[in-house]
Amino acid sequence: MMPRPNKLSEANPMSNDPILAVECDASAADVSALEREIDQHVYRLYGLTPEEIKIVEEGTR
Description:
The protein is mainly α.
């Protein structure tokens, strides 16, 4: 039998997500700045060029 988690963060690993934390604090929270920051990290992780980033961003509008 698996041990039962005692903390909310153990029961729900997504509870440590900063975007979800902001959204939970205010139903109309603006998380666009956090989303842009995450996008920049992903672009850097994959080594995208500025031209490739432009293509990705135009495709998500």
